[in-house]
Amino acid sequence: LSALAAFAVPLVSALTLNAPTTTPTIGATVNLTWEATTSDPSSFNIYMANTIFHNTFAIATDVQTSAGEYTLVLPPVPVGDGYTLEATDISNINNVYATSGDFSVGAQTTASAPTLSTTSTSMTMSMPMSSGTGTASTATGTSPSGSSSASSTPSSISGAAASFKIGMGPAAVVLLSA
């Protein structure tokens, strides 16, 4: 019997994994914390399990126990209740060192949408024996991280006395946001 007890001791862990203190949302930064002793393994993996959906998601690998915390961006998972965190052995995910209390995951919060404004300007130009009219436009976009603008320029002017053309192609603004 003492031989069996000696075998079981290495599987015992004092690691305590804490549930998030606020409801994490998809795409948001989450700070995971735990308490450990020197008898705990030096590293572990963290899984997010949901007993309602019967899903388990790997969210961190080879986490250093001595750090006491790990920050990550919550990946897309089903929104709802019934989640727990599991600290597992790196080489055997069935060996669970610690399980947190239950917590819920909220829907992703949306950032403010980029805005786009367009202005148009008309001009008339007269030349001997002909005249022409054109339109110039400028588009300016603003996103939460900055702004961007694009404008178009005349594509051709030919035969100063014969004709005058301003060709406008579509103006496009590409907004990239981190």
Q: Quickly give the structural class.
A: mainly beta
Distance between the termini: 59 Å
Q: Tally the beta strands.
A: 11
Assembly type of the chains comes to: single chain
String of helices and strands = HEEEEEEEEEEE
What shape does the CA trace take? globular
Quote the beta fraction.
over 45%
What is the alpha-carbon Rg in Å? 31 Å
Query: Count the helices. How many?
Result: 1
Q: What percent of residues adopt helix (DSSP H or I)?
A: under 10%
Average pLDDT metric: 73
Biggest pleated sheet: 5 strands, antiparallel
Q: Uncertain regions: pLDDT < 50 for 5+ in a row?
A: 1-10, 112-127, 129-178
Summary of the model, kept short:
With about 180 residues, this protein is mainly beta.
Written overview of the protein:
The chain is built from 1 helix and 11 strands, in the order H-E-E-E-E-E-E-E-E-E-E-E. Helices cover 4% and strands 46% of the residues. Strands 3, 4, 6, 7 and 8 form a 5-stranded antiparallel β-sheet that branches. It has a 3-stranded antiparallel β-sheet with strand order 1-2-5, with no helix packed on it. The protein has one helix at residues 2-8; strands at residues 16-17, 29-35, 43-50, 55-64, 69-73, 80-88, 96-99, 103-105, 115-127, 130-143, 146-151. The relative contact order is 0.16. The protein is mainly beta and 178 residues long. A hairpin with a 7-residue loop joins strand 6 and strand 7.
Main attributes?
11 strands; mainly beta; single chain; disordered C terminus; disordered N terminus; three-stranded antiparallel sheet; five-stranded antiparallel sheet
Secondary-structure blueprint of this entry?
Blueprint: H1 2-8, E1 16-17, E2 29-35, E3 43-50, E4 55-64, E5 69-73, E6 80-88, E7 96-99, E8 103-105, E9 115-127, E10 130-143, E11 146-151
Antiparallel strand pairs: 1-2, 2-5, 3-4, 3-6, 6-7, 6-8, 9-10, 10-11
